[in-house]
User: Fold this.
Amino acid sequence: MPTARNGDLALACGWALVTLAVVGLTDSVILRVIVSLPLLLFLTGHTILRALGPIATSLLEHVAYAVGASIGICLAGGFVLNRLGGLTPLGWAAWLAVVTIAAAIVARIRHGGPRPALALGALPPLRRWHALTLVAAVLITGGAYGIAVHAAATVRPFKYVEFWMVPGGVAAPNRVIVGIHNAEAKPLVLDVEVKLEGHIIASWRGIAVAPGVTWARGLAVELQSGQLEKVRASLYSHGGNILYRQVSAIMPAG
Amino acid sequence: MSEDLGVTPSIRAANWPGLRPIKGAVWRAFDCIGPELHGRAAGIDPPANPNWIVLLCLNAAVALLLVAIGQALGRRGAGGASIFFWAGVVLLLLPTATRATWPQLARGERIFLLLLLGEALFVYRLLYSPTSFVHFDAMLHWMSAQDILFRHQLFLHNPLLPISPAFPGLEILTTAFANLAGFAVFPAAVLVIATLRVTFVAALFLFFETLTRSPRIAALACVAYMGCDNFVQFDSLFAYETLGLVFCVLVMMAEAKAARRAEHDDLRVLALILMLLAALAITHHVSAFACAGYLIGVLILEVLRRDPSAAPGRFGLLMPLAVAVLAFPALWIMSRGAPLSNYLGPVLERGVDALMARLDGASNARKLFVSANGVVQPLGYRVLGILWTLLIVIGLSTGFFRALALTAATSERPGLARLAAVLSRKWRDSRVILLTLGAFGFPVSVMFRLTGAGWEIGNRMGAFVFVSVGLVIAVAIVHFWQPRKAPWRLAATSLGLGTILLGGLAIGSANQAVRGPYQPGADAASIEPMGIAAASWTRDWLGEGNRFASDRVNRLLLATYGQQNIISTINAHIDESRIFLTRKITPDVLYWIKRGRIDYLLVDLRITTAPALLGRFYEAGEPGHGAPPPPSMLLKFDKAPHVARIFDDGWIVIFDVRALHADS
Assistant:
């Protein structure tokens, strides 16, 4: 019964083609993880081992070799795809599909006979409370990870306000951009003043910046010719005239 | 079924007249370290017990929950963090390790529990930083992976770790998965490393089981290996050794399995191992060298072996493997022009010099349990560190000759006769002999750790030396410490193994196991959202690829989150400390800025608040050796007419110094 004997090869080929289709057609991360992880880290190696012929004497040994061989194939794919300019999602899916199908064909041709049984040993009987305990263990572990993620996202040792001024660059040599980002826990109302050679050339009063919000404005600067000029910007609390920050930008010679 | 060799001691029957006063002490010492194999055949293993399995799964989950609570409290600087954390760690390690190494247990249950322990320890490490890379080495490799993922090209320059693009194995694997799954490097790396951990533990178990023919010794050896200080931390990071070790153990397992089956000319096995060796050669240099040392060591011992029962064709597989394991890394390094000697050479040279100086008494020992900033580690860490070393030494002392005797090619039972057979080069398995001799690497690694410059070598040796340490300790436990199932012996050895695991975890975390508040100059403990935001700002507002100089921690953030080109000693032979750690803008400062054509300088005023935990803010040997510089030193560029302060968040300031080298 060749079909039954090589069911694993047919499954691997089918899986590789499904992965190719999923990677090409959908952006669903969950679906792509589900199809690509087994192909990348097991199935390609499994078909390579089947093409080589029986090596392992136990299922655990076979799985370990299959993971190793899969990674080996993946690394080889990296060099091939790098040469072809194909280090892209579709490039990877195509590489894995080609290798898996080719190895399956070789395995089918070379080793038509029965392969050694690599069956899972007898599993201990599971009762309902076993299953419930395992589910609880998974949920608790998920909860532990959730606590860690929450702490990483919410604990901020520093509260601060970013203030900057950057020149417009080659595209706009006589412009600067002034910006504020509020990373404090509360909304702020701020004033900004820009000076060139001691003279105020622009100012903004009562800028309301909520937490997490960025405020930025462009400003044209009239330059003196023949020398570099430093434009300075100051950030004050609104009305209180308390200086928070001072930044500057060097403007190219006019 | 377990096959612990049952050998009764006969040495006690010997009679040495005239030495009665010291006879008892000599016997006791000899009995401890001697080669007698006291272990008895374990009999038929019982079937797997699902009650224990599910309860230990639940136990591991609760333990991880306690660890997560401890880490979350630690981030907030709240009290009780250590209590939750260490309670979780003890709960995670002791019950599972004890059950997995119990004298009579189903093989499948042992394997499951070992895999559970390996994965739980990986999740344990993940809880330190669950959503992003923070460890120094991981961030270096993350940069290489980002380049491959977004620029779709291999071998792009990594300014922080120039050797990394020449060994892109882990990055190729991770970015392949990231491409296929459609997500970022970090989640891809988590799933890849989780798979690698399972594979590593499974392969290590099968390797030890093949050598000893005993699932129990294999399980004990695996648990002892997990006591390596690198197992939980360094070797589960997103770094090339994590994958290199997996290939290494797979090669060792495949070769040992083939030798056991007497398939010395099996081309299938040869093809598989050659594939693994080729993958290893492009993944990690040190792992490839370690694997070469192992295979060539086995070959040499096989040549020396005089066992008449040895198969004449046993070199059939070893010879081509020995050639390949030398040729593949050499060819790869030559073809890529990898600057390996520049990378490893100085580390080895400094380490060996420091060790020699230490042995000659010409240099002072490194202060143990004292951080580079002078802070003494907590008492618990110190006690665990000392116990870890002591218990491993006791295990090696009591297991060394027994491990040799275990593989003697003789039917005689007395340990001395078995040892004599080994000394006559009659052994059954050269791998056991090699690994047992390899246990000498542990005291060597400890000696390296006692020196300042050699500490890194001693630390990195651990991952490979512990394969030997694990085997010898396992043999010691089965054939000396637990010859009978006396409850106190089981409890004492379980406690000893648990202490080794705890000690390895504590040493590996270098006093940073519990996440705490921000610390300057502390790598992972210095990485927090404000620094990341500043680095991201550079990418958003200045564009990618600007030439930046900064301190060690912000260099990482600028290169990864900011995608900037970092100018440093490693990348451009520019010593940034000579730019930042001077009181005035001297001609020397201007020289380094011009020579490096540096566009921007990022200063982090937080480093002025406390000494660097790791003893440096910029480079090893910097002025002040990690002492906090005064703020005026870092802000001296404010006064320069052609320097602009373009960014300020109250702590982090960025200076635009492009005008200083505009004409050069």
